[in-house]
Amino acid sequence: MFTLFFSIFAAILGLSIISPILPAIATDLRVTGIWMGLIFSGFAISRAIIMPIMGGLSDKYGRKIFIASGLLLLAVISLLYLLAHNEYTLTAVRLLHGPAAGMVIPVVMAYGGEIAQEGKEGRAMGTFMMMYFLGLGVGSFLGGILWHLFGMASVFYVLSCISLIALLLVLPFVPEVKNYWRIYWYNYIYRASMS
């Protein structure tokens, strides 16, 4: 389960570790108006659109391939920020970054629900959410420290490395679940209310 927890952490880190420096990048590029809004919201909007699609595809084709592919994309896209030199390329990178994270988060949550021991599903989901919010909190702090000590580019190199480490953990240590079952929200809420 540690590998799954770390995958969630790495995926959400992509949002939070960049947050301290994104305003500075936008200022350096002299971004204003609607482009500023797109740069900041592009990640969340594109991620929200892709998440149910990835969840459905993983129901059909298996979880591991989507987790691994998402982490690989996160590692690559993190470095694309270094090539963003205007509002168009920065917005494009943000719009790509969101779906990469969206490939990981819902699929890891579904996988975790499937392999959690019976009667301990709530604990597993609680731990996943802990890693989610830990990624939000630690990422912002880490991003600020890296920027201050080593410069802006270091943030993207570290983010890429963390995503790559998560991928290298997933490949050998996360088996594909053959007889997976779908987690329907109404069923999850019903079970939680009855326990």
Automatic annotation (TrEMBL):
GO molecular function, one term: transmembrane transporter activity
Cellular component terms per the entry's GO annotation: plasma membrane
Keyword field: Cell membrane, Membrane, Transmembrane, Transmembrane helix
Membrane-crossing segments per the record: 33-53, 65-84, 96-116, 128-149, 155-174
Localization per Swiss-Prot or TrEMBL: Cell membrane
InterPro entries: MFS, MFS_dom, MFS_Efflux_Transporters, MFS_trans_sf, Sugar_transporter_CS
Residue span, Major facilitator superfamily (MFS) profile domain: 1-195
One Pfam family cited in the UniProt record for this chain: MFS_1
UniProt topology in membrane: Multi-pass membrane protein
Name of the protein this chain belongs to: Multidrug resistance protein MdtG
